[in-house]
Amino acid sequence: MLQNTSTGNAPIIPKEICKAIWRSKGILPKTRVFLWKAAHEALPVDHILSSRLNKPPTGCSICGAAIESVSHVLFKCPKAQQIWLASHFGLRTDNLLDSMKELLTSLLNQLEGQQLGNFLTILWHTWKDRCKECFEGKKLRAQQTLAAAASTMSNLQTADKLFSRITVQMEDPLVKTRYRCWIDASWVHAVERGAGLAFVLFDNDQLMEYWIAPAVAATPFHAELLALKNAIHRAIILHITDCTFKTDCLQLKQVLNGETNVSEVDWQAFHDATYTILIWDDMKQSSNLVLYSCKQGS
Fold first, then answer.
1. What total number of domains does the chain contain?
2. Which one-letter DSSP state was computed for residue 262?
3. Cα torsion at 179, 181, 182, 184 (round to 10°)?
4. Domain interval for residue 7
5. Domain assignment of residue 204, yes or no
6. Residues in the chain with pLDDT < 70?
7. pLDDT at position 122
8. How far is CA 136 from CA 6, 72, 133, 237, in A?
9. HSE-up of 67 (CA within 13 Å, CB side)?
10. Where is the Reverse transcriptase zinc-binding domain (predicted)?
11. What is the DSSP letter of 76?
12. Structure confidence at residue 143 (pLDDT)
């Protein structure tokens, strides 16, 4: 069994609960880590920190309650109560148990699938937004927290659907790296050359993170280059040196492989992105980086 050693009276979490947390689908990996810490009463709240540092407790930094425990922060603080009551669960949390072990055990036994994912994502955003208020002074309303949680769930579901479709239709058995990054972009000339950029990063078959952002691009090819450039930047920041970047843009593959020339209208975009691509290209010999097209046309 896993046991937290941050405090003297840390709970012992049943192996089944630990497995359920790590195997929960439809949530981000960092949310699983957060849940594991919450279950083990290992989040940095006042009750735990004061015990660890042998200092008198100062109470809840939001509402002034005498004890700022993990369950208080996530469920019983008035701010957290507003979030749960306003959620589609319509949950009153003022009378819930104090034990996170018992709360999570009950939760994992009653909810499953998307409902469980929604609940856990709201839990994560409750904690995340509380930290913003405590350390950045950003006071967010309950509806803002719920909207952020809904956006996370929507993006995750889109990424899962994309990955399922790509896995079935476009998997290349010759390319085997630990990390895989699917990049894509859309472009609309009528909307002031507006573009939408995205990449989805996987560690083996586990969704690691995703990124979606608007941009201004001169051409569709420019938009694809911007998506690739941002994906490479992110991989460098994460110290990833073994990654396969996958694209459905045939033109991007042909240009990078030297199979075709860049058109005059796309030259500036290619020139802007070349520096980042060449930096990454220098790592290919040691990192087995492969950039290829997952299908024959965009």
1. 2
2. P
3. 180
4. 2-159
5. yes
6. 1-15, 159-176, 189-193, 256-258, 261-298
7. 94
8. 26, 20, 6, 24
9. 8
10. 16-84
11. I
12. 93
